[in-house]
Amino acid sequence: MRTDACDDNNDRENDDWFLPKDKLVPGIGCRIYLTSKLTNDNGAFLNSRNKDDSIHVMTEDLVYDVIIVGAGIVGSYTAYHAKRTGKSTLLLEQFPLPHSRGSSHGQSRTIRSAYGDLEYYTQMMTKAFRMWNELEDQSRQTLFRQTGLLCIGQKGTKYLDKTTDCLRKNKTPFRRLDYEEFNKAFPMLSYPSEVGGAVVDYSAGLLLAGRALTAVQNQYLKLGGLLHDGEKMTEIIPGEVIKVKTEARLYQAKAVVLCVGPWAKKVLTKLGLDVPLQVCLHYGPTVDPDYRDTANDRWVEDALQKYVKEHIPGLEPYPVITESCIYTNTPDEDFVLDRHPFYNNIIIGAGFSGHGFKLAPVVGEILATMAAGKTPEQDMTYFCLNRFKKSHL
Fold first, then answer.
1. How far is 376 from 378, CA to CA, in rounded Å?
2. Bridge partners of 286?
3. How many whole angstroms from its chain centre is CA 114?
4. pLDDT tens profile 235-285
5. Residue 39's beta-bridge partner residues?
6. Residues 326-340: tens digit of each pLDDT
7. Going by C-beta distance under 8 Å and a sequence separation of 6 or more, which residues neighbour residue 73?
């Protein structure tokens, strides 16, 4: 039985995000089979190498408390929180680390409290800031550079009013500027009079993304967690004890958390779910994450150059370094943080829609809590799978 806020509809066959049983992919939850295992002469099941290059031996009967699939920022923070609470934890990553194939690489990500009227994210960010500061202290590295964030709004819209109200309510330092004040404070910017002003979110800045990802993975390993990179998951077999098959071997766990980023659509389809996720470079055309290098990303660079020329005329518009990032977008740009509707011990973290990195410490805690069979303290209404009914789209 599900105990979280998302469990309000048992008629799953009528939900447009759930595939009919006749469309389930063979081998995913609909057949039982025996598979050969890699063992040593004593019959022990060989585990893969940990980060310290030592060989860990796992017996055939070993069952992890939780396996997290995907070692991006959300998956890594989920593993960290699970291990921190004493769970036996395995973190799987299909590519050798570090890599730039997903959505957690690169030099920086924006971190901010300003979210318009989406107060639930601003509330989550209050806790996320504390957790990022904690990671800085643990790793003894600078991971966050506080610069402030300028939120510019058009006349006739409520964006600036909603942002101001939300920041004030959550006691986040900010400054509201009308158009004249905006031009005086930022003379290096060029915006037309249609701009209604701006809000400065003083809490905001930059996260050093690649460094932050490595930092949380290192803290997870210090706690004794296992991290197997270069090991792609090929199959999940649901059950009270879930079997996770990779290209190398077979694992077992009481719970599995799927944080597979751009591969979520492919993985969830094999588990019988048709979640409306769009995988793209930023907000462009749909791309296949397995063939991202073939996607045309020139339009992104052209759009940025045009924007810089028009609005920041003193800045050189041509980039020195370019690096693309894959977005996995939901229709409403809210996350998917939920249990599989039929397999209560399979937890899904997906659809971070280009704004998930900053919230990863809190999201990871939520997913680890769900994997432990508990209910998160946050209101999960906004993140449930069942919002993707036809009546809601």
1. 5
2. 280
3. 19
4. 999 999 999 999 999 999 999 999 999 999 999 999 999 999 999 887 778
5. 45
6. 899 999 999 999 999
7. 104, 209, 212, 213, 216, 356, 357, 360
